[in-house]
Specification:
This protein has 252 residues and is an alpha+beta fold. The chain is built from 6 helices and 11 strands. It has an 8-stranded antiparallel beta sheet with strand order 1-2-3-4-7-8-9-10.
Length: 252
């Protein structure tokens, strides 16, 4: 938003598409969204990104703590719905509101695009909003871990949108206070999934923390599943089907 963010190539993205999905990328300042939908919706996506960013930037301009705080802040009745959702997610996860920003943007854009396409997958910096009528596999990118590129989360057709968000101390520019190669949360609230993924990653200082960190994430209302990877060790809990990517086609 107001602070510069270093861009890193999204090497995990595949633009080969499928026989039904149209696949495209839309970039607005620091927001870089990869989209799969049943129609080419670049103009609509750009407009929605700008609308969402305007809501978030308005809160940042009014309250610097909205941008800078690493701990929960209080809601302000004047905040727009996107900002309020980020604040509530941060409260549940024990993080500042910006820990939920990528998930909140993905969800805002994705829900609106459902008016034009009944199936939508939005990826924003490793955080995913999706609603699909077919099984899909979301690959988990784990940096230098041997699990990286080998592990996927299978998602069955869902009439209710779902968020799958990943935080990492090893990949991407986002701040992590831990040492996890990947910390992934599945929840129906994508902003919540994003914030809790950050909280989960913060709790993994070494592989011995994986089990307790995953249990902490699962204790938060609204979290459906949690996965954490540190080196050669992994912990997972909840409604989660893990599949090897060499036997399934990754859709993200």
């Amino acid at each position: 938003m107001t602070d510069p963010i270093i861009y890193e190539p999204r090497t995990y993205r595949a633009f080969d598409g499928s026989e039904d999905f149209k696949t495209f990328r839309v970039v607005v300042e620091t927001s870089d969204l990869y989209v799969k939908a049943l129609a080419s919706l670049e103009k609509e996506t750009e407009r929605l990104i700008r609308e969402c960013r305007n809501q978030i930037e308005w809160s940042i301009a009014r309250r610097p703590e909205f941008l800078k705080s690493l701990v929960p802040i209080e809601e302000d009745p004047a905040d727009f719905p996107v900002a309020a959702r980020m604040i509530r997610a941060g409260k549940k996860a024990g993080t500042g509101p910006m820990a939920a920003v990528a998930g909140a943007v993905a969800e805002f854009v994705g829900r609106a695009l459902l008016d034009w396409s009944p199936e939508v997958i939005i990826e924003n910096g490793g955080d995913i909003f999706l609603q699909v009528a077919r099984p899909v596999v979301v690959g988990v990118f784990c940096g230098c871990s041997p699990f990286s590129g080998q592990l996927g989360i299978k998602v069955e057709p869902t009439p209710i949108p779902l968020g799958i968000c990943t935080s990492s101390a090893k990949v991407g520019p986002s701040l992590s206070l831990g040492n996890a190669d990947a910390a992934t949360i599945v929840a129906k609230d994508t902003a919540l999934a994003d914030a809790v993924a950050t909280g989960l990653g913060n709790r993994v200082k070494h592989p011995g923390d994986l089990k307790s960190a995953v249990e902490w994430a699962m204790s938060i209302p609204g979290v459906d599943a949690a996965l954490a990877v540190a080196g050669e060790k992994i912990a997972a809990k909840g409604d989660l089907e893990l599949v090897p990517l060499d036997s399934e086609e990754s859709n993200e």
